[in-house]
Amino acid sequence: MSTAFSMAPLFRQSVGFDRFNDLFESVLRNESGSSYPPYNIEKHGDAQYRIVVAAAGFQEQDLELQVERGVLTVSGGKREREGESVTYLHQGIAQRAFKLSFRLADHIEVQGAALQNGLLNIDLVRIVPEEAKPKRIPIGAVRHALQS
After folding, report:
1. Within a domain: residue 147?
2. Closest Cα to residue 13, out of 99, 100, 74, 77?
3. Number of domains in the chain
4. How far apart are CA 94 and CA 9, in angstroms?
5. CATH number of the domain encompassing residue 58
6. Domain span at 119
7. Using CA atoms in the order 64, 37, 59, 61, what is the torsion angle rounded to 10 degrees?
8. Using CA atoms, how far apart are residues 49 and 111, in angstroms rounded to an integer?
9. Which of 26, 56, 66, 74 has the most Cβ atoms closer than 10 angstroms to its Cβ?
């Protein structure tokens, strides 16, 4: 019996930052049925991320992405097609409606999304503005601006 505690569930709902308080909050608020559809969160370099959602059976018009107040929401639902009459003898590919939410860190932006081979790839990039980047302050010369 292993007593090691896996931190993997803590990192599932966050992309681009490692703030433990926010991670614990999102785990506590996590809905129990949010494991469908399966997804991966990948890091490609220091400033690039990708969320890959298994969207087998869905088409582009069945999926919707929205970013609001730093939360990326991916939702999907099979829509009825005109003239489509299908009777399933066995339906093993789940096509039920879903909604996934990911809290994005500051300065993380969605670059684009593409549905390819049943996988929805959502590319994210960290774009830090100059005023938010750390600045090195030289030690030595001190200006006395307050002198009259």
Report:
1. no
2. 100
3. 1
4. 23
5. 2.60.40.790
6. 10-80+88-129
7. -20
8. 10
9. 74
